[in-house]
């Protein structure tokens, strides 16, 4: 029987040594603490077995001393393992250095017992009928050691039980196992006082192995699935795991939402996500990444799906899992960025570069189609911003973009080239001029300005795509060339590019290029056309312009003035003429000829591109002339374009002493309300108005009414276009004050005028 007990202890020793070896190979923060307990347990079992099987009394006594020392150190290591492992309140109470001092004193006392036998000796006992063993013969001093042992045991027990009641439910089981075995071990140890054998030694071994299991096996194996489930459940990507047969073995919260039977996620073949993944797992043997589109109802959702294979240590396939990432928001954001990169932010039409690119692709891939490039803009759009503000200007552009989009079924592609310039590519057969005619009501739709007097006029230039190797930008340039030929017109709104137009445009460009040199070299000449009263006495003249071009000869204003009015260079011409008139008046002043005046024209564009008031103030200061000798002719249409602003400017000029004439009265609005609110010094009747009413009773009545009205308002009237003495007498009879026309004199250079009239 003694041999059997020795064999059992040997097995326990082998088991303890095996776990000691496994622990030494682990890279874990608790491995050192568990190793110390296993070493103490190994020593305890070893020395207890020596004590049982040895036949020499001294050896048995030494083995028991070493056994009790091992038990004490085992409990000490168990105590500090529990403090480190559970982190309970005893950690701040139990001082390790103090306990070590007591432990070394106790160990020294037990070693001293080998010599003195003051704590225990040994005695012979017969067990199991005939087996002779040596058993400790305990003395009173031994129980001091035992009390220290119980203190350590109680502290261990308190720590384990406190952690058992306060730990989360998952951890309670391991604390319960350790505490239960520890209680059984202490009971067995206490029972050893009444028995020949100390069975608690096996309890210590079981306790240490239990601690190994809880630290390195139970917690990872049980906690890992829970942790992974929690982690994957909170991930922003879906996880779907399938076994080797394609059956679902795990899916996180995200995937469960995708698989909701009441609102399933399906592809264009009506397969749900699980079925799709199952099919892919059977098709693909390697790790694969998919870019797939699924639908929630009719809403598309974009996914990046990664297939991962799971293999064992022998490279045998165990199953697979899918990482499913919803990239809908990312895709939509990318589309938004791409859209912003190719579309105008204000109108949402293509930007210039993208329009060119799309148009070029279509033109080169549809060689058999007759195509038009159409470029449009809005007449005097800058004035819209000036009058109503940039916000209203933006609204007009957006309304025009909407007008284009309404006809998108007839258009191939379209875009905004910049400012108020738009471009369209379309088939020739689908072209209608009305597609691009924006009315004033459409332009100001949705605003408080829908009933304004400001008239919106849109122009379109059309280029038929013939030379398909040209860049689209050049085609648009040709369409704009056509457009520029009608800018300023109130009747013609569409122009077509052809060779004649090209030649005319080149001619206009050459004249525009020559203007700077013409001004610098004084090629522009001021001509004067006399103005007279009824008895044909000359009282002044209107300043007109001729261009003495070195290559083209003398050019009349009808040749170049319309060109410069369209491209804005008219302001340079007008400023040149104003200064020429002031210079001539100063010359007459110096010569004592102060009775004549010169009348100069102010073009509508001058009001927006020149500071008219400051310019004339500067001319008065420079030439020191009487402002009454410089008459300013302002067209009726220019006044009506910005009524309040022009009225204020006219008042300021009149306050300086200038005589302000309303030019071409009768050719535009002819508003009686304007005569009521605008203070002008002279009304100038349009010669076309005169021709249309000559020798008709109705025309005479209208002329008589206009002249009579001006007399009532105290405004003198001058008629231009008087070509016969009969016209002069007719107008004088109606009460007209002043006259201008070929009858009185054609425009002539200054020398001719001076020699004839001065």
Biggest sheet layout: 8 strands, mixed, barrel
Uncertain parts: none
What is the CATH superfamily label of the largest domain?
EAL domain
Tell me what portion of residues adopts beta-strand conformation.
Answer: 15-25%
User: How many individual domains?
Assistant: 4
Structural class: alpha/beta
> What is the radius of gyration computed over CA atoms, rounded to a whole number of angstroms?
55 Å
Separate helix tally: 27
How much is the average pLDDT?
A: 82
Q: Class of the largest domain, according to the CATH hierarchy? A: Alpha Beta
| Gross CATH architecture of the largest domain | Alpha-Beta Barrel
Strand order of the largest sheet: 13-14-16-17-18-19-20-21
- The share of residues in helices is 40-55%
CATH fold topology of the largest domain: TIM Barrel
Name the shape in a single word. Answer: rod-shaped
Number of strands: 22
The termini sit apart by 160 Å
Structural commentary:
The chain has 758 residues and is of the alpha/beta class. It folds into four domains: 2-229, Rhopdopsin 7-helix transmembrane proteins (Up-down Bundle), CATH 1.20.1070; 235-332, 2-Layer Sandwich (Beta-Lactamase), CATH 3.30.450.20; 343-497, Reverse transcriptase/Diguanylate cyclase domain (Alpha-Beta Plaits), CATH 3.30.70.270; 521-757, EAL domain (TIM Barrel). The chain has 27 helices and 22 strands. An eight-stranded mixed beta barrel has the order 13-14-16-17-18-19-20-21, surrounded by six helices. Strands 4-3-7-6-5 form a five-stranded antiparallel beta sheet, sandwiched between helices. A five-stranded mixed beta sheet has the order 9-10-8-11-12. A hairpin with a 4-residue loop joins strand 3 and strand 4 (248-251). The termini are far apart. The model has no long low-confidence stretch (mean pLDDT 82).
